[in-house]
Amino acid sequence: MWFANFFVGGSLTMVLPFLSLYIEEFGNFSDAYVQNWSGWIFGITFGTAFIFTPLWGRIGDKYGRKNLLIVSALGMGLSVLLMGFADSVWELFFLRLFMGIFTGFIPMSQALIATQTPKEVAGRVLGTLQTGSVTGNLMGPLFGGVLADLFGYSSTFKWVSITIFLSGILVLFGIREVLYKTADSTDDEATFTSKEVLLRIVGNPVMLVVMLISALVQIAHFSIQPILSLYVADIHGAVNIAFFSGMAFSAAGLGNLLMARRWGRLGDRIGYIKVLIFLLFMAGIVYFPGAFVTNIWQLVVLRFLLGISIGGIIPVRIAYIRQEAPLSMQGEVLGYNTSLRFLGNIIGPALGGALAGFYGISAVFFVTSALLILSGAIMFITWYRHDYAGKQRKHSRAVSSH
Q1: What is the C-alpha separation between 178 and 117, in angstroms, rounded?
Q2: Contact, 375 vs 246, CB < 8 A?
Q3: pTM for this structure?
Q4: Where are the domains of the chain?
């Protein structure tokens, strides 16, 4: 599964550094036009993913996830292959929309591993799994930038589709899914309707906020993604732009790779919410100086620090859900969590493109920083009121009774 995630993560990020540059090849467009369409084309994939992901999660709870992973790889591979033949903004837009039906390979693999991993080591295991996609994310932009400079943008899409198909083959022949699970409680063996799952989420304020934070974090993080290559061009120039854009993307991946497993292991030891709160504030602080960089290397350093902070947010979030949700509903709960992430992926690029078009790219960094710090504050307040303070009151009553 690690290698399958590596290939999917690398394949999908290969095209990110030059997506906006690919749009420029379709015609003589203004900068504002390209920035806005970059946001919509990048984000529309997650629009359909937002709708379909909970459905895939519920199907996975009933019938297993291996076959779903194979279908996901085939659908994404076909979509990316056809993107290499697109010759208009609208064709690229609709192909990205179609790809969203099948997007979710990596979250689906995380759900597969999470539901079959003991709670005590979930953070470490999920952090290790994430290093597969992160390593792909790290190498993908660099290879994508090199391929684009050597062979052109359309040919790169065709090469990328091959590696996505390879991921499906790895799952088909290399993964054996264990459909039975060891239950820790009667809830783990029970069957829940979708209404009962939603009521369970709403009835746990901390888990509800953890899931809502998924959307806010993605809005913040993805607001800069589709226009990062344009920002690199502004501060560095047009020479080898695809390569240097890939370097800026990969710097965040390197920081993520180095710390994802460590953050997960720390969450196993001291608590996932504590780690999550710290990382949200750290990411918000790191994002802010990005608006003031004057050369590519300053941006690369900040992207590396951002990767360190972002690296633990996904594994500790999923590990917390693994800890709190009964086993028999975890696929659907994780599906809703992923769906909220995709909602953020829709809003983020559109928001980033609009902000960049109207106020300049620096404004995107300011808004992103504020959203992450706000997320950290909301998470801290909710955790303190409903978890930490409650435990302190129970402890005080227990002490006074003796």
Answers
A1: 11
A2: no
A3: 0.73
A4: 2-175+200-400
17 in Cβ contact with 229 (< 8 Å): yes
Q: What are phi and psi of 279, to 5 degrees?
A: -70, -35
Q: How far is CA 46 from CA 101, 168, 218, 290, in A?
A: 9, 21, 11, 26
Q: How long, in residues, is the chain?
A: 402
The answer to whether 261 and 134 have CB atoms below 8 angstroms apart is no
Q: Angle, nearest 10°, between helix axes 313-324 and 105-114?
A: 50
Q: State the Cα–Cα distance between residues 66 and 178, nearest whole angstrom.
A: 10
Q: What is the pLDDT of residues 18-69, one digit of tens each?
A: 777 888 888 787 877 887 787 788 778 877 887 887 777 777 767 777 888 8
Q: Give the span between the Cα atoms of 140 and 160, in whole angstroms.
A: 9
The third-level CATH classification (topology) of the domain covering 2-175+200-400 is Growth Hormone; Chain: A; (1.20.1250)
- The terminus-to-terminus CA distance of the chain in angstroms comes to 52
CA nearest 133: which of 16, 225, 258, 7? 7
Structure token digits, residue 265: 């292991």
CA distance 361 to 345: 18
